[in-house]
Specification:
- A six-stranded antiparallel beta sheet has the order 5-6-8-7-9-10, with helices on both faces. Strands 1, 2, 3 and 4 form a four-stranded antiparallel beta sheet that branches.
- Helices cover 35% and strands 26% of the residues.
- It is α+β, with helices and mostly antiparallel strands and 189 residues long.
- A hairpin with a 2-residue loop joins strand 7 and strand 8.
- The chain starts with a helix and ends with a strand.
Length: 189
């Protein structure tokens, strides 16, 4: 095994996707942080968990040093996030009769927003919400998913997402997104 591959093998189980506002990506990474655009205004980055609750962001140079592709990093990070998420419970809110379900990831583990990248969860949410699935990720520790059928609830959530984003220490996006079973897109009324 080449030294570069060995280095990637050593970190691969500590590699996770994270969501970050594009302004923060530029400020924190000076253009060197490995990232990918998932939808209009929605970007994924990658972090390696280090001792003492530290995260080291993956750079383009890391790809060259490891001799792996962006796709390899992305797939590996998603597998790790899926493993981390298994067995965890999402909070379900709604009316007492079970209507108007809304789901919130708020585990405060730094990866709540990144769970927008897990198609299984998005598909599960889409099956039970009325209308089209709409998802918001204002900061890294919050993901909200609901249907767009209840316009008043949707407007309330949209205002909350924008407010949370403005106040966040680790902002992701002030926008809402839809999931069509294959990809994310910015929600438009």
């Amino acid at each position: 095994m080449k030294l570069m591959e060995q280095e990637f093998a050593e970190i691969r189980n500590r590699l996770y996707p994270m969501m970050m506002d594009p302004v923060q990506i530029q400020e924190k990474g000076q253009g060197q942080m490995l990232n990918g655009q998932m939808a209009d205004g929605l970007f994924v980055i990658y972090g390696i968990e280090e001792p003492n609750d530290k995260i080291r962001y993956v750079s383009f140079q890391d790809l060259r040093d490891w001799g792996v592709s962006h796709s390899t990093v992305h797939v590996t990070a998603l597998k790790n996030l899926d493993r981390l998420t298994r067995g965890k419970r999402v909070t379900r809110l709604g009316a007492p009769d079970g209507s108007r379900p809304m789901f919130i990831w708020n585990l405060q583990d730094g990866y709540d927003a990144a769970r927008i990248l897990l198609p299984k969860w998005l598909d599960d949410f889409a099956e039970v919400v009325p209308g089209n699935l709409v998802v918001g990720v204002p900061h890294r520790n919050w993901l909200v998913a609901l249907g767009d059928e209840d316009k008043a609830l949707l407007e309330t959530v949209e205002r909350r997402v924008k407010a949370e984003h403005q106040e966040a220490g680790f902002p992701v996006s002030p926008h809402l997104y839809t999931w069509d079973g294959m990809s994310l897109a910015r929600y438009r009324r």
